[in-house]
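Researcher: Quick test of sequence recovery. Tokens follow.
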């Protein structure tokens, strides 16, 4: 167990809003951050002590970065495995390479989840038209085709309801390795943000209920409108995932809930702080960002209790240009990510509302 005390330096791969909010939380606890990101003008650079602008394939820059920090972490799951290996050879990497390998490939992820005793949608792998027919025979419709790698916000996915839908699947998956999943007739989507420290302590935040619009997270509400039994079971499932990965840090576990049977089906895991955990910044005793820093530095984990009823709303694209209503709202906390170009659908900021329970 290697504890890193305040005064130490944390390396973060990725300079987006998650890296930025991690760096802010690290600063609060007295740590410095070194951000590694290929893009100039990355939002996290504005709030960090050191930056490296270099490609993830640049092994010289990666080695220098890793040697300059006490522990390295990442804000996105598509860190190339060779990048992670170079960093891990030169400093502590938390979470480790296993979490990346599992979350980068939907087939490996599903196999891992089932082995960990966690339920997923039924699935079959496919690549060619022939495999697709065989997979479709087993899974039937409705079903969802997804590329195994690099899918996010609904990209590389196709919902199959009709024979016509089936015909365009290989265009959507771009003839790359993919999986066909059974469609889950869920009533709600929830997520559990759970932290596991380097010493193996685990703490889950209250369950959040998520609404997606056009495949992008719109709102998270806490508490979720689920029974105490579902709330407890969801936390147990997320804890199983963190333990089975021998995980260090914060992980987001996204789940579907079927109310009539109290069934919980895990959709995917994100080995990082997660958008559906942003409510914790104003609505929990400890934020998910502080919790991640505590976990990777092997400090005691913070209190995950909610301060009341909380709603988080994402600000996408040009939403960020009209903040006056939120600034005038005495119950709203505004978070602006410092990005300049408000492209449609781009995550530019978020707002939290907390109704305190006294
Ligand atoms: P994903 O990219 O796996 O997070 O999926 C994006 C969204 O598509 C999810 O949040 C769900 O709303 C929907 N979705 C994905 N997989 C399924 C499924 N097997 N059954 C029903 N809806 C799904």
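Model:
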């Amino acid at each position: 167990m290697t504890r890193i005390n305040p005064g130490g330096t944390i390396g973060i791969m990725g300079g987006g809003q998650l890296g930025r909010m991690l760096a802010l939380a690290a600063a609060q606890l007295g740590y410095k951050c070194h951000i590694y990101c290929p893009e100039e003008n990355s939002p996290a650079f504005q709030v960090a002590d050191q930056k490296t602008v270099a490609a993830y394939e640049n092994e010289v820059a990666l080695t220098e970065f890793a040697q300059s920090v006490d522990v390295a972490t990442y804000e996105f799951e598509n860190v190339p495995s060779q990048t992670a290996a170079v960093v891990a050879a030169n400093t502590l990497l938390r979470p480790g390479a296993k979490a990346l390998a599992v979350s980068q490939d939907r087939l490996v992820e599903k196999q891992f989840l089932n082995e960990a005793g966690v339920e997923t949608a039924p699935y079959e792998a496919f690549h060619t038209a022939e495999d697709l027919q065989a997979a479709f025979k087993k899974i039937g419709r409705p079903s969802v085709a997804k590329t195994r790698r690099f899918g996010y916000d609904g990209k590389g996915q196709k919902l199959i309801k009709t024979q016509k839908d089936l015909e365009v699947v290989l265009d959507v998956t771009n003839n790359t390795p993919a999986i066909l999943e059974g469609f889950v007739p869920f009533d709600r989507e929830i997520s559990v943000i759970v932290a596991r420290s380097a010493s193996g302590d685990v703490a889950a935040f209250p369950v959040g209920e998520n609404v997606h619009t056009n495949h992008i997270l719109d709102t998270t509400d806490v508490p979720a409108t689920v029974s105490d039994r579902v709330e407890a079971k969801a936390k147990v499932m997320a804890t199983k995932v963190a333990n089975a990965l021998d995980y260090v840090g914060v992980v987001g576990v996204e789940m579907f809930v079927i109310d009539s049977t109290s069934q919980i089906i895990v959709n995917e895991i994100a080995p990082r702080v997660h958008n559906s955990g942003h409510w914790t910044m104003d609505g929990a005793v400890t934020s998910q960002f502080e919790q991640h820093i505590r976990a990777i530095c092997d400090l005691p984990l913070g209190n995950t209790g909610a301060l009341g009823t909380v709603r988080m709303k994402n600000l996408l694209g040009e939403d960020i240009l009209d903040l006056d209503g939120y600034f005038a709202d005495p119950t709203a906390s505004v978070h602006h990510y410092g990005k300049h170009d408000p492209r449609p659908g781009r995550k530019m900021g978020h707002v939290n509302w907390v109704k305190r329970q006294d």
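Residues 121, 144, 151, 154, 181, 183-184, 189, 212, 215, 267-268 surround adenosine monophosphate (CB under 6 Å).
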